[in-house]
Design a protein that fits this description.
It is a single chain. It contains 10 helices and 12 strands. By secondary structure, it is an alpha+beta fold. The chain has 2 domains: 151 residues, Phosphorylase Kinase, domain 1 (2-Layer Sandwich); 102 residues, Transferase(Phosphotransferase) domain 1 (Transferase(Phosphotransferase), domain 1). A hairpin with a 4-residue loop joins strand 1 and strand 2. Helix 1 packs parallel to helix 3 and helix 8 packs across helix 10. The longest helix is centred in the middle third of the chain and has 21 residues.
Amino acid sequence: MKESKLKKIDFYLEKLRIKERDVSDRKIYAEVLDDRTLKNLYKLSKKYIRALGGVISTGKEANVFFADGFDDGKPVPVAIKIYRTETSEFYKMDEYIFGDKRFDLRRISKKDLINLWAEKEFRNLQRAYTSGINVPKPIVHFRNILIMEFLGEDEIPASSLFELGRILPEVADVEALFDEIVLNLKLLYHKAELVHSDLSEYNILFHREKPYLIDMGQAVLTDHPRAMAYLERDLKNLLRFFARFDVKKEFEELISEVRGERL
C-alpha cells in the first residue's frame, strides 16, 4: 500500500480518536477505509462516535468495528458496520433488492447499490426493533456506514450460536432458546412483515441469555416474490442446527407456526 494512503488513513484515524490499534487492526482499517469512507466516518463522529475501537468481525462485504458512541446524546457502546465500496460479492445481493417495493433501482450504480444495501439493513432493523424483535437497535446510517447497538460486554462481542457450538446446553436451556427464536421469527413475519432470508447459527447471537438476530441486510418484505422460499430455507437451517441438541420439530409444523395466527 502506498505510503501516502497510509499517512492519510493515520491522519483521519487520529481525528477519529482511535482508542487502541495494533498492526492487524491498522491493516484492516487501511483495507476498508477508503478516502470517502474516512470522510463519512469523520462526519458521523461529530455526533455519533466518541472513539473508534477494535475490529469485531471482517467479511467480504463488510467489516464491523467497536466504538464508544452516542445514542440520543447519551454515551453508549456501538457497533459500526462499514460496507466495502470495492467488492466483487454484491452481485449476489441483487435478488434480495430487486422485488423490494421500497427501493427504486432504475439506473443505479454499483457504488449507489452498496449505499442502498446499508440503508436497507438500517430500515429492516428499524422495522424489526420497533416490532419488539431481538435485534441490535439501529442508530444511524450514512452512505456505506451503519451504526447500531453493540451486543456484548466490556468490548467483547456476544457469541454466535455457531461459536458456542457444543457447549450451548451448558449456557442455555436449548429448547427454550429454540422457542424464543421461533417467536422472534413469527414477530418478524407478522409485525415487521419481514423474512430474515439468511438465518443460520452464524447470525444469531446469544446476548444476556437471549437470542438476537443480526445481519438483516438480506431481509425482504413478506410480499417479495421469493419471500416464502427464503422463509423455508431459514427454518430448515434452524431445524438443522438444533437437531444436534435433540430438539425435534417437523418442518411443516414449524412453518405453520411461523406463518400462522397473527400475534
